[in-house]
Amino acid sequence: MWLILVCVFLSAAGCVAEFSCRNEAGDPVDWFIIYKIPKYKNGTAGSGLDYMYLDSSVKTWQYSNFLVNDSLGALGNTFRQLYQGQQYKTNRSAYMLYNDAPPFLKYDNHYGHTKGALLFDTVQGFWMIHSVPHFPPPPEHGYSWPSSGKMYGQTAFCVTYKYHQLPLIAEQLLYYNPRVYNCSLPAIFQPDLSSLALLCKGSQLPRTPDRKLQTLMSAKGETLLSFAKSHFWVDDIYTGWVAQALKTDLLTETWQRKEHQLPSNCSLPEHTLNIKRIKLPGPIVFSSFFDHSKWCVSRAYEKQWTCLGDLNREDTQAWKSGGLICSQNPDIYHAFRHTVSWYISC
What we know:
16% of the residues lie in helices and 30% in strands.
């Protein structure tokens, strides 16, 4: 009762639940992944708004009862923490939205090919990486899904982190060179997060080394690897770095335009093989041509690596900055590995 009275008394001062990824019921979760189904699948046209959902409690892909443009789904529940109650105007929390193709702005080729969002206070928050152009809207606009976001498959990977992980994430984002289109970093956070301060201000970024591999830990203790490359490191991130660092052949699902696509590559000790067809439960089958997501899995089941991120296997993207977040969570691995219906060997 005492705690309830204190919360009522302090409600105007922000006595709210800690920021975190939120599931389909609106409850906090350590992580979740959504896989938006493309408009064209199984030779027919769908809504382009349906999606599969995965988190640590459901363990396998679940067909969501919501659509991605529904504010009551996992994405809407998670971003509601920013949009509702004008949290973006307080000095007790910070956020950053970045996208190389932001809402309401023209594409600018000078930034990293990277998309994501952060929201946190001095206790914890979330970092969401995704593949959706023109998303999410600035907080004053409220939650919505872009009209352009129906055609292709898309993914989003949200992870909850304790505050002490934020400086590590901020350093990785310097390599990303993200196009920040909306940001708030009150003075209380700036001593710890000077890298985010530079990004929020749009300052010229310091020259970083070519790439950096950083170990991160989720709020509940799950280990993740963050691969971040700058545009100074010119190579396909999957072939030249991730496969070799993880010591595993990779099956890669990325959007490839015919004039720029990279073939499957077996020139290095660990191979990188292009996925061509996806099969989600249902069965829902679609071609990689209709998939804008960026992810990869170990070909060998015993390795159990899954990575989600920003970059496509295209020749032009070798010059782009961006990254991947990799996990050895067996539920994530099996969910993605079993979606691989067809891939191209060398």
